[in-house]
Task: structure prediction
Amino acid sequence: MERKVTKLEHCHTEVLVNVDKDLWKKAQDKAFNKLAANVTVPGFRKGKAPINMVKGRVDQMKVFNEAINNVLDPVYQEILKEEKIQPVARPSFDITKLSEDELEVKVTLVTAPEVELGKYKDLEVGKKKATVSEKDVEESINALRKQYATIAPKDGQAELGDIVVIDFEGSIDGEAFEGGKAENHELELGSHTFIENFEDQLVGSSAGIEVDVKVTFPKDYVAVELAGKEAVFHVKVNEVKQKILPELNEEFIKDLNIKDVTNIEELKNNRKEALKKQKENALKREYLDKVIDEIRKDSKFEIAEELINEEIEGRKKDLDSRLQQSGINLEQYKELTKMSDEALTEQLRGEAQKGLESFLVMDNVRSKENITLTDEEFEFELAKMAEQYNMTIDQIKSALGQQLGQFRNNLLMRSIEDFLYNNNK
Result:
């Protein structure tokens, strides 16, 4: 088959194919025979009439359409094989010439993004050192103590950290609303589980007290009908409870069952190391985001619109899924935020563009620096995970299932991130 290949802008390639005459003739014959098998001619059984009598009863355009459908796949496969093109989205087909003797097809392919990578080493971004204060350690230990706290009735006024058992009913402009009423609800003051300022207004209350709590629902509240509105909750405090923290002693430390921790000093060191690792990971993530952003700004990208649109649709579906977990759908969210579909799409377009460019930065750094993950390194990481969860490697592989490939990709991405972290400042 004769082909003319033209590279277009924005990662598109156009291939004009003049289909081989014999292939086109055979495709038409096959299409005709298929359609003719369903033609009925008076005096003959279906499919048994002479060809010259059937021809006038078969729509030639139907023959062409059926034949074209049979030809397109082999034409496409030959293009991929002979031209060494790797498409990243579905191609489009346009028939430019059509007759019994000739078929010309224009195939437009979406090809991989093109990147001119900017500077990616020796960037002055500014690494930060993780520090852990004595106060941080103390708060971490207190958090552990709270997990083992016992609950006891409390006489007197409620304080932050105490639990109040309450009956309440909410109203807006004197009218009660659905979902705004409960009895004997346990609420920890300072937990921020209720609307902002609700809990603060119960500090200082005591058993038997009744009080009106005034709040304003957030503008982005999940219940659209309540969003941004002022409400009054009539609250009766039935009981006040307090958390009694265990003494910080060796008996408590033993109950924690932390490996190699048997006394207070070892517990402090353990918490300090854990906090330091958390902060280091957070600072490293923040630093890498800045590094990738710098590289991205210094690079040039050419990405097909089809890929960007595909990424936008994926993000819309992900947003809708997360919203539904909160009890609303995408349409309600747009109504709540007063955002048009065009505005949401434009917002997601920016996120999609940045996400694709960031991935392309990482992938091109991998290619330029020949960063790989060997089978031995992969098995080592699986062995570490198996030890952590007290499982065999085969059990870990079985548990990961279809996510095993994603786990391997994540390890490779981590290697690229380590390279960027170690080669920038």
In short: The first helix runs from residue 21 to 36. The mean pLDDT is 91. Residues 150-244 form a domain with the Chitinase A; domain 3 fold (CATH 3.10.50.40).
